[in-house]
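Quick one, T. Sequence first:
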Amino acid sequence: MPDTQPPLPEGVRADARAPIGRNRQFRLLFICLLVIGAGNSMLLAVAPPLVRELGLADSSVGWIFSLSALLWVFASPYWGRLSDRVGRKPIAALGLAAYAVSMASFGAVVLLGLNDILSGLWLFTWLMLARAIFGAFGSASSPAAQAYIADRTTRFERTEQLAGLTAAFALGQAFGPAICAALAAKFGLVFPIWLIAVLAAGASFAIWRYLPENTPPKTERPRGDWRESLALMRDRRLSAYLIYGFALSVVAGVTVQVFGLFTMDRLNAQGAHGSELTAAGFMVNALALLATQMAILPRLRLGPRGLMAWGAGLLALGVGVQIIADTLAALLVAQAIQGLGAGLARPGFSGGASVAVDPEEQGSAAGLVVAANGAGFVFSPLIGGVVYETVGMNAPLLIAFAILVAMMAFALRSRRLRNIAPIEPPPSEPTTPS
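Structure tokens:
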């Protein structure tokens, strides 16, 4: 039976389901994730040279993000459920405001470290706590934004529309490192961090002031407490997507955390030059992801299962190329292939999870999806930074390659993914005069 367009809730304008970029609400959410993507890529680009300049161990790059990731895992489902009750807009605005506070705090701690006011364990601890603000409260934005999209799309549209929203994050990732490298060369490594704090505060105000949300909050609380969220996590409709998403986040955490160190060591680059090379790699990766989601994905007409399988396969190929790369050009090719794979895998996983559940479960499902996206970063410091230091620079990538091969096999063989129909436009139906 075809999936037909459900009626709009009372009070919601007819343009509320217009595709991304065609109305104000989607443009605002696009800017929201663009700022977060730019900030994260800037921070990842400056982190490897920063920790070495601050006298911290290479593995501290991963550990600084680990507490934030752990808090992200537990907080995201809560914010998703809360957005079901109080609305998407206030939760999205709160997350951006917390992101601004987190980035400003992180920049302040780095400045204290560079001036020898903080050092050693105290410096490391305060860096972790500053980033933890993002995990605990900044995690509110993503589930609220995803649920906002799910509220205004049909099952057939959702994977592509969520991919369009993810493209905003990729666009920020693409240009963030380049902007970061230019600003860091002129104003120092801390200035880009504070700039993102200011932009995030402005985006939070814009969401709060201008994002239209005419759908009233729900008076009931379906899937309202954490026990029911855990039940949804174990639900056969959703569990396979969450398993895949967790594995994908482990791989993302490992590859992101070691790429800067890998590039600096493989190409014998340090300091600002190392930051520039790392930024170039992240930019190529994000541009490939963006091109995939904006130009390739709408033409493929693959279902979530196919996107997940192809995405994992291409990511594995990209990691394999990185292992044998010995020049900057080869490293950039590896990043481009990984960006292409991530551009298929991420919307396949998130869109499939959204399609698998009912409308009243969208907030809770979006929270679990976002939690899965961050859960891997709790463990990736062990697989990334620690293994990189103790075993060798190729070892974390070999582990990531093995995980991706297993993910591809899982996407092809899991019976829990077979209930999702391919994404295609619903057949047109004759309209009846009113």
